[in-house]
Design a protein that fits this description.
Shape: globular
Order of helices and strands: HHHHHHEEEHHHHEHHHHH
Distance between the termini: 23 Å
Number of strands: 4
Largest sheet: 2 strands, antiparallel
Radius of gyration: 20 Å
Number of helices: 15
Length: 342
């Protein structure tokens, strides 16, 4: 109840221009599918998916300063847990989702305890997350119960059905599920930033020793950030599994998937609320646009997506080191465009 009151208070005290822009964006996203064909709808689903998973990663890195480059670990564990429970035991995804969150929080706790108990931080913490993602990928390559390297496939039903209980339905249903996830991620992030945990997170990120000297329980709040980020990312994994209906360890645990996750908040603006959303939109639209242009011209350029991501990251670092959103926010009069500015 207090969290709900806090969010209402944050929203009502926000500048009118920010409030109106947020409501207009939400209204537009609610009616947008009416004007989209099947392909454009799939593009919007991708944007919303990456916006949400970017928000989940942003909790760990943008708010608390703990760099994870193996975040695909939580996507994969969440996806495989819910998918396996559904396929082998008929457990509905909404229950499997709880199990997926529990598994990812447990894994995040192991990583966090190892890192923070033994003083592993910075680059070495990032390498630890990569190591766990790679160990898990190799393990699932040989885990026959979920298909191993040959892939794990969910039963596919006719897409004209709308079975929300079992997450079996057409792209329109998955669009609104992705939108609900994106809104949920935004709300959780806004609540964190305005609350005590958010202030402690940023204190740890900016100067861990000073935060400890000021009485902040650094170990506890760093663990909380890692656990929360892992649990939120698990939900993205469940969505991924039931939207695509197939899982391959190399595809879902690979380092390339982790890079895709972190690029949106980096380019949009780390530590901001709108940064992951804007970054996801820019990267996905640019990637899909280039693919469509190449397909229409008859040319095929291997690795074009990776080239685009590299260029986007390089340009952002050179010209907008704090991301795109802070620049846009200042020019539109939304404030500094930094932490919490909506």
């Amino acid at each position: 109840m207090s969290a709900g009151r806090d969010l209402v208070e944050v929203f009502t005290k926000a500048p009118a221009r920010s409030r109106n822009a947020l409501l207009a964006l939400l209204a537009a996203l609610l009616v947008l599918p009416l004007a989209l064909d099947r392909y454009l709808l799939s593009v919007m689903i991708l944007i919303l998916y990456f916006a949400y998973v970017g928000q989940a990663w942003n909790v760990m890195m943008g708010f608390c300063g703990q760099l994870s480059i193996g975040h695909a670990l939580f996507v994969g564990l969440g996806a495989y847990t819910a998918a396996a429970l559904f396929q082998h035991f008929g457990i509905v995804p909404w229950v499997g989702m709880l199990a997926a969150v529990a598994v990812c929080v447990a894994m995040a706790s192991v990583i966090g305890w190892l890192a923070f108990r033994f003083g592993i931080g910075g680059t070495y913490f990032a390498l630890l997350t990569i190591a766990f993602a790679e160990f898990t990928r190799i393990g699932f390559d040989h885990f026959g119960w979920v298909g191993g390297s040959g892939g794990f496939f969910l039963r596919v039903v006719q897409q004209d059905r709308f079975d929300l209980l079992n997450l079996r339905g057409n792209p329109l249903m998955f669009y609104y599920l992705a939108l609900a996830l994106a809104v949920f991620g935004f709300v959780v992030s806004a609540w964190l930033l305005r609350g005590r945990a958010g202030f402690y997170f940023r204190a740890i990120r900016d100067n861990e020793e000073a935060a400890r000297a000021a009485g902040v329980d650094v170990f506890r709040y760093k663990m909380f950030a890692v656990q929360l980020s892992g649990g939120l990312t698990a939900l993205a994994g469940v969505f991924f599994a039931f939207y695509y209906n197939n899982l391959f360890p190399e595809q879902i645990f690979g380092i390339g998937r982790s890079i895709e996750i972190i690029l949106a908040p980096i380019i949009g603006g780390i530590g901001t609320l709108f940064g992951p959303i804007l970054g996801a939109a820019v990267l996905t639209l640019a990637s899909e646009g280039i693919n469509e242009a190449l397909s229409a011209s008859g040319y095929e350029v291997p690795g074009v997506k990776q080239i685009l991501y590299g260029l986007a990251l390089g340009l952002a670092i050179m010209f907008m080191p704090h991301g795109i959103w802070p620049v846009i926010a200042r020019r539109l009069g939304f404030g500094r465009g930094s932490e919490g500015d909506a």
